[in-house]
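quick one
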Amino acid sequence: MLVCPTKKEVCGAVRDWRRQGQVIGLVPTMGFLHEGHLSLVRAAQERADHVVVSIFVNPTQFGPNEDLDSYPRALEQDLKLLEDAGVAAAFTPSVPEMYGEGGKTFVEVPELGGILQGALRPGHFRGVSTVVTKLFHIVQPDIAVFGEKDYQQLAVIRQMVRDLDFPIEIVGYPTVREEDGLAMSSRNVRLTPGDRKIAPVLSRSLDLAEQAVAKGAPTAITVEDLEKTIRDCLETAPAGKIEAIDLLDARSLQPVSGPLEKPVVALLAVRFGDVLLIDQRVIAAG
Ligand code: AMP
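structure w/ adenosine monophosphate:
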């Protein structure tokens, strides 16, 4: 596996592969890799001849009071996992390598990036779309794989790719979970042992909502019922501070109400101490 700390090195590697007519896949990450990331890598490998994984904790997507400094990092361990997974190249830039003197240009998807997590974390999606644009230009992949766990992020990136004509296929991959249902996340290691025990309440609340739909006649259940089911379950774990329970049209991310006519996505954000956990589920009637 090539380890490329500079843009020049990764560009050079990809240029050679492209000249040979090979398909390039990209999996952007912030490192501290787990099975969720590795599933994305395998999905990319199924579609591409060479997979590049970027590891970059992107400062511009963290707010001033967020966990940039305490975000877990383990570069050597990550590189070993990627090597074992048969990744062609790891792109591991430093912040100065990525941004030079500091970028003065941004890419923004204001509508989708300004709501929900974007409203709770001002500037977050601007940081994401800008860094993903840079990664797309540096690596020039044919396909790029993102997790559905970050549902709004995936929607923002799909919109950006459509609007700005990136010649890149975006692949979404389902959320990979621990045995107790907790969505895998690099941030899970920062939970206290007590909070770690309670944290599966997010996925349990989504299971209950899904089961309620499966049980009842589809038109009998409303979006408000689902919200209540989820809230009641989350409130059984008061250590988790509910930051958001959003039930939205699964495609447009616009608010919905009343009977469950179209697929809705439930997006949850729950804070345990200073660790913000998110989870999502698309729930469809019938
Ligand atoms: P991160 O390192 O958290 O920025 O995540 C890098 C990529 O991995 C993003 O596309 C995430 O959506 C995806 N990802 C993170 N956790 C999971 C998971 N548990 N299952 C599937 N994809 C994930």
